[in-house]
Amino acid sequence: LLLPEPCGQPGTFMDSAALFGKDRARVVLPGDVNFQVRNLIAIDPAVQGPMNLREGIWPGIADFSQNADVLRAYRAAILDRLGIAPAPASRRIFLARSNDRRSFNQEELIAVAERHGFEAVYPERMSFPEQVQMFAEAAFVLGASGAAFAASPVASSTSSRAALTRLEISVSSA
């Protein structure tokens, strides 16, 4: 199982890869080296996007590509392999960050979210199975866009997710 360098660090990506490649060696490929392989099977991502970015137009649902059947099968396999039984989604989750990677008013947003029944969670402090359990129990997930949403495909199909992003988008026409 060949993994790009960013996915080879301990944590969510390696843990999920281990669930699907238990009998296979996992090889992390450095990003600055070219490789040649004899036989390669490449799997398209289940979700791609945003697609078709246009100057001055915020991306909409049609700008993303999703394979719903693959996502449902992925969710079922992860829950099964971790021994997590699907349950009614009831938690309201605010995905917080404990580091200074983002400069926004997170504490103010958490206070507003808590007034509406959300609990602040810090996914980077959780193991992959704990993240899967949390998303599986979530009816609503809110947070800044980014890696904190990595385990969100295991959320219930009835859950709602909203990623907070900057108002500006930059589109290169080159």
Structural write-up:
By secondary structure, this protein is an alpha/beta fold. Helix content is 25%, strand content 17%. The chain has helices at 12-20, 68-82, 106-115, 128-137; strands at residues 2-4, 27-29, 47-48, 65-66, 91-95, 119-121, 138-144, 160-164. The strands form 3 sheets. The protein has a 4-stranded parallel β-sheet with strand order 6-5-7-8. The mean pLDDT is 80.
Summarize the structure.
With 174 residues, the chain is α/β, with parallel strands linked by helices. The protein has helices at residues 12-20, 68-82, 106-115, 128-137; strands spanning 2-4, 27-29, 47-48, 65-66, 91-95, 119-121, 138-144, 160-164. It is 25% helix and 17% strand.
Q: Which structural class should the secondary elements be placed in?
A: alpha/beta
Count of beta strands: 8
C-alpha termini separation:
34 Å
Low-confidence stretches: none
Mean pLDDT: 80
SSE series: EHEEEHEHEHEE
Trace the largest sheet across and list its strands: 6-5-7-8
Basic shape: globular
Radius of gyration: 18 Å
Please give the count of helices: 4
* Oligomeric category: single chain
Largest sheet: 4 strands, parallel
Beta strand %: 15-25%
Helical residues, percent: 25-40%
